[in-house]
């Protein structure tokens, strides 16, 4: 049996205030309370992800190796596998636990449209 503490989303939700702030990144649970005032992006970023899976937000920013090493000091344990599976299932059904809206198709089409416009300009006006 593993000595690693296992957590549920219910337990994470009990810790989403400035006095006690937990979140999960890559299925690992971290207590980031002491880091609130030091976070370069401001405490609002951490408070927004409190009590839930912050993996996508963490990776989108592109944190440094130093930032990843800092997480080791804040490590509490792992998210229970059943909790992760539950979150993945709800996300696939369109009701992700994080509450974030699904990305708009325009977000993906915009770069393509810009490239097409550039190509047309080069063909006809350059």
From TrEMBL:
One Pfam family recorded for the sequence: Cyt-b5
GO molecular function annotations of the record: heme binding; metal ion binding
UniProt keyword terms in alphabetical order: Electron transport, Endoplasmic reticulum, Heme, Iron, Membrane, Metal-binding, Microsome, Transmembrane, Transport
Membrane topology summary: Single-pass membrane protein
UniProt GO cellular component terms: endoplasmic reticulum membrane
Domain Cytochrome b5 heme-binding: from-to ranges: 4-80
Subcellular location: Endoplasmic reticulum membrane; Microsome membrane
Coiled-coil ranges (or none): none
Keyword Phosphoprotein included in the entry's annotation: no
Family stated for the protein in its record: Belongs to the cytochrome b5 family.
Protein name: Cytochrome b5
Source species: Cutaneotrichosporon oleaginosum
Species classification: Eukaryota, Fungi, Dikarya, Basidiomycota, Agaricomycotina
């Amino acid at each position: 049996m593993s000595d690693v503490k296992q957590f549920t989303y219910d337990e994470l939700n009990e810790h989403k205030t400035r006095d006690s702030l937990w979140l999960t990144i890559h299925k690992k649970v971290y207590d980031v309370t002491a880091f609130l005032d030091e976070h370069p992006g401001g405490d609002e970023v951490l408070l927004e992800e409190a009590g839930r899976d912050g993996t996508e937000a963490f990776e989108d920013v592109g944190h440094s190796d130093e930032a990843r090493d800092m997480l080791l000091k804040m490590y509490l344990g792992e998210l229970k596998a059943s909790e992760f599976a539950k979150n993945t299932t709800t996300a696939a059904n369109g009701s992700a636990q994080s509450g974030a809206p699904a990305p708009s198709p325009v977000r993906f089409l915009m770069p393509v449209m810009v490239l097409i416009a550039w190509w047309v300009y080069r063909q006809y006006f350059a």
